[in-house]
UniProtKB/TrEMBL annotation:
It comes from Penicillium egyptiacum. The keyword Transmembrane applies. This is Phospholipid/glycerol acyltransferase domain-containing protein. Keywords: Membrane, Transmembrane, Transmembrane helix. The keyword Repressor does not apply.
Amino acid sequence: MGEKGQYIPPLVGWMYDLVLWTFSVLIDLFFREVHPRGSWKIPRRGPIILVAAPHANQFVDSLVLMRVIRSEAQRRISWLIADKSFKRKFIGFLARSVGTLPVARAMDNLKPGTGTIYLPDPINQPTLLRGVGTNFEGKDFEKDGTIALPTINGTSHSTAIAEIKGPEELVLKKAFKHRDALAQLTGRQDIDRDGNFTGDASEQDPDFKGTKFKVAPHVDQTAVYEAVFKRLGTGGCVGIFPEGGSHDRTTLLPLKAGVALMALGTLAENPGCGLKIVPCGMNYFHAHKFRSRAVIEFGTPIDIPSELVEQFKQGERRESVGALLEIIYGSLVSVTVTSPDYETLMVIQAARRLYNTKGKNLPLPMVVELNRRLVKGYAHFKDDPRIVELRKSIVGYNKQLRLLGIRDHQVAYAKFSILQVVATLIYRLGKLALLTIGTLPGLLLFTPVFIVTKYLSAKKSKEALAASTVKLQGRDVMATWKLLIALAFAPALYAFYTASLAYWTYWNRVNGMVPDWVPLWSVVIIGMVLFPTITFAALRIGEVGMDIIKSLRPLVLSLNPSSANTLVKLRERRAALAQQVTDAINTMGPELFPDFDAARVVTDPFREASNTDTKAKHELPEIRRTSVSDHGEKMPSSEPLPRNESFHNLANIGFFSTRPPSRDRSRSRSASARPGSRHGLKPLSPLTPKDPLEDVSSRIRDAMRERGERRRRRSEDGSWDMASSGPGTPSSTEESRKDL
């Protein structure tokens, strides 16, 4: 692993596209919607390193990004993959087919060590480590190897070995700083959050005998780095998940140094290659669930500062790598939604729904942006008494929703009259009955796949959780295993159905329903097409049916006299809570965001509601546009979004645009000839006496270049929208979108 002669598979274009096309079908089936945002920022040419986080869906993350990058930027990615996964039979075959780069990780080679370890003098000699019953001179211990502690509070702390002094004594490269790690190695509890001891040695547990540990040998990554330098040197695209492995946390893990070493090493060897780092945020909604959604957001490409490259060349690697990692981490935070814990994330999402009191179906990019702003605001004001009290109220509201078994948007059913509730319930039950008839055949055919994938994915999740030091529930591997199991089991199941149909036809012509002149080979072809078609139709029909099933419970509760009053009170509580959330945002928002009112994503619903004269004008959230005046100046306007405005047209709005706003076609054609335009030819502009023809040619070339760039951007604007409107990416229903 990691040796000089390690096999590095080449990237073969046609094979890459074949594998991607095959798995794109599964991606379309598994996800209800995948929306790329900011894809215009991806350089179409030149070397780039794509850094993606959080890594919440193991192999599925790679497939989603491969598809987005291929369709949006027409580029292929050489992914870095764990050597442990690369050596698996099926995964390894696919990895070699798409030209991945295997990377051996110390965490994959950890083995339990014999004896226990402790810090004899954590204050004066924090890097000195001693053992009891250990053999640090054994074959598993070597310089630059890894020492890892048992997992505590969901994290296993580790560090590298600097020097081995004997069988029971060694020196660490970097001292343990975290409070949990120090408590494990000293048995003391007088440690603050910064890892400082506040008492003396008397605070140590008298029964402390050290802690167990794991050890891994040093991994040489020379071959991997050389392969990365080679592919980047030829203008390729290398993809990496800098957190090191997949996880299901709500925050980003500390970034590994590998991505910085690759970037700085490439520029050190080839300073003029123009390498850029493109941050990518993987924003999932229920990542492990079938028919979930995702927003893939790309940030501004990072130009590596030349001073860091010079610092790297001069041997100051630790400083230059650390500085670049901070830049990358900041860029990733700007395109992801992170929170300290799961409960906080639920509070943030509830606050976002309460702030959008009109209940409009916000586009996914808007949902992600609102979540991101609220997380930033919460992190800044979390100790404020008003926010502390508001959090308690939202947590209580969420708890009451769970007890009633309803969703936030379903609280509005409390305002329905009895006749409305009864009519709606009868209509939906009738619709559900019809949908059930259409779904039942496909459901019966595909039930074995559902059962097997659910069972085996849960089993693999437990195995991954037991072997990991960073996972919380192991959900990050569930989607991957569901897809892999379905990919193998579903074709086998359909082959069995087809063979059974052919045998039935051969035996008695399906009870005489199939004429004798129909050949058996045609029955096989019909079965191969019929059974998958029935299943896919059931999937699409059942998706609508599940949304209806979710909406039935609040309707039934509204008919129950005992629970109907509870719903009414809950609706009143929600209205009061929405007012509190809005007041808090309007009060504290300007303190954190100087352009709060100018760049407001959603207008103040209560301020808008109070203005009855303009109620019709503001039926949709007010969104500021950027218009272009006749003189080419950008003028802000506050026009509401028209009802007939499609999502594609939202690209003209600053918040939604995935590329800088441009004039429409009619204006762009005349812009070059309009006085005052940037590159236009003025009818009466004087020509320079030196070389008038060259001046005219230069202006014409500039104008044509600008026009071509605008046309290219407009064509890219519609590429994903057109792809998403096809059968592979079904549109979401109103009920399901409100669940976000």
